[in-house]
Structure formats: structure tokens, C-alpha cells
Amino acid sequence: MNLPNMLTICRFLLVPVYVAVFAAGQHVGAFAVLVIAGATDVLDGYIARSRGLVTQVGSMLDPLADKTMMLAVIITLLAAGMIPWQLALILFLRDAAMIVGSAVFHFRGKKTVPANWMGKLTTALYYVVLMFVFFDLPYAIPLLWLVLLLSFGTSIVYIWKFRMLNHMTRHRAS
């Protein structure tokens, strides 16, 4: 197992830490855990690309770790009454669908699409807007709705790229 994949595993391990800290009422501490998870995401991606350590497993586990953390964040923020249930439901369904879809495609032998600038921008904006939510700053919820809309645009681009990549791969194999 290479260093980027170990950092991804660390992100998975931070999910229950985040939940425990949030459940203890330490919302600032929970946000700090979320920021640490985000930093490991940036670091593992940088190391993987700069050192030629990108793997198929890492390409699948990295977004899964991100989505798992985001699902934990959505659930805890909803439980604390910090975000409306409609927003939480849409965020939850989108991320859950991406997790299930990625798993199905992986086990069917389909190639995954690496992160692009739109996905990275969307993730960065999620972190910024989540800071607004955690610290109860003005416009937090409208900004979260805006980033949610952007994330659907990003998802459409990923789906299109996924279809193109796997369509080309299928034609080369025949």
C-alpha cells in the first residue's frame, strides 16, 4: 500500500472521530477534524500525481472516503438542526448514489474518472460553505444550496466523462 492510499485510509478513520467529536457538542473541534480530512485529501492527491503513485484502488477509495465523510457531516448537521432536511436529503441522496454507482461500476470492471478541476473546486467550496454552517455565519444555507447546484453540474460532467471513457474502452476491446 502506497502513501497516498494510506492517507485515504486515514480519512476513513477520521469519519468516526468527526462523529464522536460532533456528538460531544464540540462543533469547532468537529470542523477541525473535517479540515484535517480535507487536508489529507489534498495531500494524498498531490503525492499520488507528483510521484506517479496513482492507482485504480486509490482512484476508487479517494472519492469514497470524501463521500463517506460528507455523509457523516450531512447527518450530524441535520441531527443538530443546523441545515434544513430538504437540503440534507438532496445532499445525502446525491452522495449515496455516487457511492453506490462507483461501487457497481468498479465491480463491473468499468474504469473510473479521475478528479478534475470542477470536482476539486466543488469540494473546496463545500468546505468553505460548511465553515459558514459550523460557525453560523450569514448566508450559510443559501450558499450551501448554491454549492449543491454546482455539485450537480459537476456530477453531470463526471457522468459524461465516465460514459465516454468506458465507451472508448469497450470499442478498443472489440
TrEMBL record:
Record-stated family: Belongs to the CDP-alcohol phosphatidyltransferase class-I family.
Organism: Xylanibacillus composti
One of the record's GO cellular component terms: membrane
Name by which UniProt lists this protein: Phosphatidylglycerophosphate synthase
A Pfam family assignment: CDP-OH_P_transf
Pathway the protein acts in: Lipid metabolism
Signal peptide as annotated in the record: none
Positions in coiled-coil regions: none
Transmembrane segments: 12-37, 69-93, 114-135, 141-160
Biological process annotations from GO: phosphatidylglycerol biosynthetic process
Subcellular location: Membrane
Superkingdom assignment: Bacteria
Main location: membrane
GO molecular function, one term: CDP-diacylglycerol-glycerol-3-phosphate 3-phosphatidyltransferase activity
Function: This protein catalyzes the committed step to the synthesis of the acidic phospholipids.
Keywords per UniProt: Lipid biosynthesis, Lipid metabolism, Membrane, Phospholipid biosynthesis, Phospholipid metabolism, Transferase, Transmembrane, Transmembrane helix
Topology term for the membrane: Multi-pass membrane protein
